[in-house]
Amino acid sequence: MSARHAATLPGEELAHVLRNPLSSVKLALQSLGRETPGPRTRLALREVRKLERLLCALAEWDRPAHPPGGRFSLAVLLEAAASDVGEELCRREVEWAPGAGMAALPEVTGAPLLLRPLLAQLLAEVAERSPGVPLSPELRLVASGLELRLVAPGLANSGAARLCLVALHALLQPAGGAARAEGPDLLRLHVPT
């Protein structure tokens, strides 16, 4: 496929086209890692995982609307997303430190399987910009849902974070939610209850 043809595909189709060769690269790297483990192989596999999460974001970018999904705990989803990028958090010496009251917050409405990889990528972006600093997302109850705030130097300037925000906004907007950057360091998500 030519680059010109790929540029005309909708995000979902382009993500699908890119997933197949990326899967082949991932399998080859995993095989190489078993035969000759080393830091370069681990780095390449980490970058492949990042690309997989970004492809998920790209696939969501231009979908017109999404079914509301079900009710779920955003705190539990954040825990799962953090575990998805646990190796990256550990490598950057970032401790996952959610607030004590997060588990007591009400459930929200959405599509958790679609939100999880996007949240994972945002958590990885925060860790990349704040190595050694505990990762403690601020999650609080607001009038019509829950608000998640992620802060890190230059976070909103990251291309990966911006792509995730666009995809998250597309997922959250049909149910009355939103995802946006406020200044260069703050990302704010509103997830409806």
Please give a structural write-up.
This protein has 193 residues and is of the alpha+beta class. The protein folds into two domains: 3-61; 70-192, Heat Shock Protein 90 (2-Layer Sandwich), CATH 3.30.565.10. Helices cover 53% and strands 16% of the residues. The protein has seven helices and six strands. The chain is globular. The termini are far apart. The model is unreliable at 1-9 (pLDDT under 50).
What sort of overall outline do the alpha carbons produce when their principal axes are compared?
globular
By CATH reckoning, the class of the largest domain would read Alpha Beta
Question: Major sheet: order of its strands?
Answer: 3-4-6-5
Mean pLDDT: 80
What's the alpha carbon Rg, rounded to whole Å?
17 Å
Share of helical residues:
40-55%
N-to-C terminal Cα separation, in Å? 43 Å
Number of domains: 2
The biggest sheet, with number of strands, parallel, antiparallel or mixed sense and barrel status, is: 4 strands, antiparallel
Secondary-structure element string: HHHEHHEHEEHEE
